[in-house]
Amino acid sequence: MLNTKQPVLRRFWYALMPVENLKDGPKPFTLLGEPIVLFLDAKGEPAALEDRCCHRTAKLSKGWCNNGNIVCGYHGWEYDRDGKLVMIPQFPFEQPVPEAKARSFRAKTRYGYVWVALDEPLSDIPDIPEDGLPGYRRINQFYEKWNTAALRLMENSFDNAHFAFVHKGTFGDINQPKPEKYEITENEDGFDAETIITVRNPLSASRITGTTEPTTKRHQRNKWFIPFCRRLDMEYPSGIRHIIFNCATPISDGQIQVIQLLFRNDTEADCSAQELIDWDAAIIAEDRDMLESTDPDAIVDMGRKIEMHMPSDRPGMIMRKRLLELLRAHDEEELPRERVA
Fold first, then answer.
1. I want to staple 191 with a disulfide (CB 3.0 to 4.6 A). Which of 63, 141, 149, 186 is the partner?
2. How many CA atoms does the CB half-sphere of 179 hold within 13 Å?
3. First to last CA, the chain
């Protein structure tokens, strides 16, 4: 599935980068093949415009901000957060600025990140009830570019059959290759998947899990939000909840920006943020290495894989079905003539 060829995917919110990154000036980003520029307006709120000055097509991201407007670094033309041209420094004071605009996009802050929707959103940014809830802390674990497709990351996030193999260096047990049963319930936003799994608990993970036992159990409540977000709530017998939220933001058809947030119901003294970042980073590195070795479109292009329909394949099959339904529902209204595989 070529994400950049499906206009309906422009109608969702995607996390791009920490809002803190914009405090020192504009930043470029490519979302679904669309070059955009992010900056902070006069109120400190994020704004997103096409990364192209309407004068000589220079990238606005090479400019700077002035009182909440963005200034083109080529000739100093200045635009407000809505893309309206408000100043041409070469014009005499009495000469009116012509009606001209750079295309603007919806942008807002949530969970410490800038989120952008290129067209009218079909749904809101997924809700994380624990954000700001007393007793929970939020840790921005990482954001980085991966050479894979958004749907591949989502499928992998619900595939319990890979734990024993891909994660044999962290929590997986290669002697227990059969995944435990998932209970999957589809809903309007995507689906919920619940299971209880036994995992290895090396000494390095004891502060993560809250126990020094050699193995422990995870009560996993995994939720998929159409199209490319997921929330994994892992509850340990110790009472610790380790809640991971990911957004796989499509840059192009073969590259994504992955953001990962963590919510914990403990304190820095119980387990430091750096310990939590390092532990999950090792697991994520195992996933990334494997996913970047696969074909980005393997979940959709049925001719490029063998469908054996293992029970653990069901989440991916549901994702494929639901996304194809979404694309077809909007086909007459907005999809290009090129069809998905």
1. 186
2. 19
3. 6
Cα(60)–Cα(79) distance, integer angstroms: 9
Residue 24 lies in a domain: yes
Q: Residue 71: name the closest of 102, 35, 33 by CA.
A: 102
Average pLDDT of the segment spanning 34-55: 96
pLDDT digits (tens, 9 = 90+) for 196-238: 999 999 999 999 999 999 999 999 999 999 999 999 999 999 9
> How many other C-beta atoms lie within 10 A of the C-beta of residue 304?
12
Q: What pTM was computed for the model?
A: 0.91
Number of domains comprising the chain: 2
84 and 52 both lie in a single domain: yes
CA dist 36 and 13 (Å) reads: 14
Residue type, 288: R
Which of the listed residues 117, 145, 168 is the one where a domain comes to its end?
117
- Measured distance CA(194)–CA(197) in Å, rounded: 10
**DSSP helix/strand/coil, 162:** helix
Report the C-alpha gap between 294 and 288 in whole angstroms.
10
CATH number of the domain that residue 112 is part of? 2.102.10.10
Residue 19 lies in a domain: yes
Q: What is the DSSP string of 23-66?
A: TTS-EEEEETTEEEEEEE-TTS-EEEEES--TTT---GGGSEEE
Q: Which secondary structure element, helix H or strand E, spans residue 243, and what is its range? A: strand 241-250
Residue 238 placed within a domain: yes
